[in-house]
Amino acid sequence: MPSETLWEIAKAEVEKHGSSGGEGDGLEIGEKSVFFIGSKNGGKTTIILRCLDRDEPPKPTLALEYTYGRRAKGHNIPKDIAHFWELGGGTSLLDLISIPITSDTLRTFSLVLVLDLSKPNDLWPTMENLLQATKSHVDKMIMKLGKTNSKAASEMRQKIWSNMQKDHPDRELIDPFLIPLVIIGSKYDIFQDFDSEKRKVICKTLRFVAHYYGASLMFTSKSEALLLKIRGVINQLAFGIDKSKSICVDQNKPLFITAGLDSLSQIGSPPVPDNDIGKLHAHSPMELWKKVYERVFPPKSINTLKDIKDPARDPQYAESEVDEMRIQKDQVVSLTFILSQVLSQNTSRIS
């Protein structure tokens, strides 16, 4: 019997940890988890280190990394624990999303999507691929949860609307994520020097996407003031700190919009001449915003956005001896596959 892979062991540990609290009856979860996804080299690790008060240089995230943080609640009271997961590789390792988020751990998770504002042509494909993959997996997990704990699944579906007032005019027009979502635009220091019209397109587009998914939206950079704001938001996800009620929708300043405080009327229509909207042939508001955005920032070719799917083949992690052994192993596997096909064909002929 083949031994378990590293990822199978990690997944088993996550499920074991998540199920240790029993079936659950709708009670508040003690330990929470925050999952960081987003642009490659977009600053995810830097944000995590800043939130954990770790003064160390960020290292490239190879695949899926985990760390944790503690926060004191008071004298002789056990510390709160928050689990931080980070997906590396941009959009190249989407399959790993299923490792930390399972039906057992789903209720503990929040999602943070970090987008590199300095690369607007990559922004929409990165955002779309990551959100679609995560949303699809979360939807499957909540359906699975509903089969074993219908009360918890029902409470999750109800809770996603808690950020929006009951009389909000957009309640019937949006489709919130089933877990808390924060969208962070990084490298604002570069973005602020863009042409004003380009900044307008990016700001309005991200505001629409965030509002549609019931997410918070904020921009950050290396600025200490902005990093402190982001830290406050992440602490709220990880430890339940009170939410900030501040809001900034001025495109000439770093955006900061808490979930539920924006509206379609304030965001306005997509930045395109009225007589051109009908020519775009969009089947949904999201598709319309995508078409408008990509007219200004055409996405790069699929090959340049795809990244390297196998981290073991990434040049920055090259090790000659290990790579040589890997090549030999790949050759053996290929040869074994070919031989199995030949034997299979010969067996079918004999029979």
TrEMBL record:
Q: Name one GO biological process term.
A: intraciliary retrograde transport
Gene source species? Gulo gulo
Q: InterPro entries from the entry?
A: DYNC2LI1 (IPR040045), Dynein_light_int_chain (IPR022780), P-loop_NTPase (IPR027417)
Where are its TM segments located?
none
Q: Where in the cell is it found?
A: Cytoplasm, Cytoskeleton, Cilium axoneme; Cytoplasm, Cytoskeleton, Cilium basal body; Cytoplasm, Cytoskeleton, Microtubule organizing center, Centrosome
Task: Write one Gene Ontology MF term.
Answer: dynein heavy chain binding
What is this protein's name?
Cytoplasmic dynein 2 light intermediate chain 1
Annotated keywords:
Cell projection, Cilium, Cilium biogenesis/degradation, Cytoplasm, Cytoskeleton, Developmental protein, Dynein, Microtubule, Motor protein
A GO CC annotation recorded here is: centrosome
What family is this protein classified in?
A: Belongs to the dynein light intermediate chain family.
Q: Where is the major localization of this protein?
A: cytoplasm
Pfam families the record matches: DLIC
